[in-house]
Amino acid sequence: MFDDLRDLYQEVILDHGRKPRNFRRLEDATRTARGDNPLCGDRIELFVKLGEGERIDDVAFQGRGCAISTASASLMTETVRGKLPAEAEALAAQFRDLAMTGTCPHCDAALADEMERLSPLSGVHEFPSRVKCATLAWHTLHAALAGTKEASSE
Amino acid sequence: MDGMNPRYDVTRIREDFPILGQVVRGKKLVFLDSGASAQKPRQVIATMTRCMEEAYANVHRGAYRLSETATEAHEAARAAVARFINAADAREIVFTRNSTEAINLVALSHGRGVLKAGDAVLISEMEHHANIVPWQMLRDAHGVELRILCVTDAGEIDLEDYATKLRDGRVKLVAVTHMSNVLGTVTPAAQITRMAHEAGALVLFDGSQAAVHRAVDVQAIDADFYVFTGHKLYGPTGIGVLWARLPLLEAMPPVYGGGDMIASVTLERSTWAEVPAKHEAGTPAIIEAVGLHAAIDYVNAIGMPALEAHERALTEHAMARLSTIEGLTILGRAQDRGGVFAFALDNAHAHDLSTLLDRVGIAVRAGRHCAEPLHTRFGVEAGTCRASFGLYTTLEEIDFLADALVEARKFFTPKEAARVR
Ligand SMILES: Cc1ncc(COP(=O)(O)O)c(C=O)c1O
User: Fold this and answer.
1) Which residues of B touch A65 (CB under 8 A)?
2) Which residues of B touch A (CB under 8 A)?
3) How far is B211 from chain A, CA to nearest CA, in Å?
4) Distances, alpha carbon A58 to alpha carbons A24, A51, A81, B83, B390, in Å
5) How many CB atoms are closer than 10 A to CB B317?
6) Three-class SS of residue B23?
7) Cys staple from B145: which of B83, B120, B286, B338, with CB 3.0 to 4.6 Å?
8) Which residues form a coiled coil (chain B) (predicted)?
9) Residue of A2, A39, A40 lying closest to B356 (CB–CB)
10) For position B365, which CATH number holds?
11) Over its length of 421 residues, how does chain B's per-residue pLDDT go in tens digits?
């Protein structure tokens, strides 16, 4: 009945949605931010630990949300670990392109591997009301890195 | 033809609603979100168009034929609303923008003008935000106490708690829903007013859902205030109703000042017009009032008893079908309930589920349906999906929903787990 939705809900997404990685508090976080999607009640709390040379040493999250927003947050934590904030921000911008259009024509070759890992989420572009679910974690990361503490997907 | 009631020709009725013929990604539209806003029959659409094409001018202002015709149509709508809820007098009907504005009007006018600091307002745990926030604002601005009436696990008003909260006699206004937009619960209105009146409190009913699904008789239930909204009753947006007993409306100070609500104006001061004009400042929603009148005529032509019987059949069928679905939780098990079902699947978030349902043409609402405290009360903070029925809903649509829910649960079940089972 729903076979054509397997593009959106790929096995990777369902798996990360059910068993999110890095789903925990980071007691020694140096940056935190909360992200809210007031429309659907999704909420995440993101913890970032910047270490030596300001690299992202560790990143984790907690909260509740749909499969897409949980999977997106989970995949994000896996792809930004070890990155410099500027690299993470570049990745965030590219990911937003991917979520909104399904492609990323100007993607930076240096981040090709990371984008490949995030590509299962590209299916959301066909579901305008769900794009925000996929981008919530990235908005929250931006808030954490910029030190603004609050992000909204609105 | 509807299987349960041979005289209710739902196929015929559906033909009145142009939008129901729509196809969503190649699938027939199954519209199960009437509780948020109902679709409109041709009769309403045509009447509003005719009003604009043939009989439109501002009301209460011109001494020319067209303005008189428009004024008559506007007042005829008021009379039709009065008859629809069996008000004693058409002057007891105040037109507002929607239920929300009607409740705010009571909170701002009766609340600040009649209630005193130290008085209490009692609302229930199952209110729509429209019947929570205005009272919180009144509490914060005016120093009234806000009390919360508990709801049982079945989703009914806890009458023992009600008696307790009324006991000290400080509650001066009870503001409760007549039918929950999440649980479907129809509240025992006559009993609520009897207990309130004995304790010296007035009662406001939020009839946004009840007025659509049940015959409402404000005198029989002995209500003091009653509000509902046009767009859920197959009428247009932009028009709602506040009914209140005449002496209450007369004692209420106006909230908005301007044209139409005055008797005389000098640059120093003004005097107020009689009710209901006193509470209707500015040019009203003329075309929408005429549309609401057409909607009421439409519902009356089918007959509220026939409509109620149809919805009872739908509700029973839905309860029977949905209760058997593994992993599905339905909120609320009230004895007296209407065609609103909020549910959650154990392995899918409400938004993922609604995306799936939308794929096959089923429109349900996902989220917390403007009733966050109620979702917290029932431990479903993440939200639910809600299917709500209208007079055009069919048993087949409910079957289709039930089948889709079973498939959706399979869709979200991990592959390995499916193999083991
Ligand atoms: C029970 C209840 N009360 C109030 C409202 C608010 O109606 P409106 O938005 O038309 O003011 C609704 C509908 O959303 C409702 O279901």
Assistant:
1) 349, 382
2) 348-352, 355-356, 359-360, 366-368, 372, 381-383, 403-404, 407-408, 411-412, 414-415
3) 27
4) 11, 8, 6, 67, 52
5) 18
6) strand
7) B120
8) none
9) A2
10) 3.90.1150.10
11) 444 556 799 999 999 999 999 998 888 999 999 999 999 999 999 999 999 999 999 998 778 999 999 999 999 999 999 999 999 999 999 999 999 999 999 999 999 999 999 999 999 999 999 999 999 999 999 999 999 999 999 999 999 999 999 999 999 999 999 999 999 999 999 999 999 999 999 999 999 999 999 999 999 999 999 999 999 999 999 999 999 999 999 999 999 999 889 999 999 999 999 999 999 999 999 999 999 999 999 999 999 999 999 999 999 999 999 999 999 999 999 999 999 999 999 999 999 999 999 999 999 999 888 888 898 899 888 889 999 999 999 999 999 999 999 999 999 998 766 554 4
For ligand 1, is residue B239 a contact (CB within 6 Å)?
Answer: no
Cβ <8 Å between B350 and A39:
no
pTM for the model stands at 0.93
Distance B36 CA to ligand 1 centre (A): 8
Domain closes at, from B300, B335, B360: B300
**C-alpha dihedral (B313, B334, B399, B329), degrees to nearest 10:** 180
B296, B307: one domain:
no
| ipTM of the complex model | 0.90
Residue of B nearest to A6 (CA): B411
| Measured distance CA(B180)–CA(B370) in Å, rounded | 11
Give the residue numbers spanning the domain of B323: 10-31+303-420
Same-domain status, B267 and B183? yes
Going from the Cα of B48 to the center of ligand 1, the distance in angstroms, rounded, reads 23
A2/B415 CB distance under 8 A: no
B50 half-sphere exposure, CB direction, 13 A CA radius: 11
Residue B2 covered by a domain: no
Tell me how far apart the alpha carbons of residues B249 and B260 are, in angstroms, rounded to a whole number.
16
Q: What is the CATH number of the domain that holds A51?
A: 3.90.1010.10
- Is there a contact between B355 and A5 if contact means CB atoms under 8 Å apart? yes
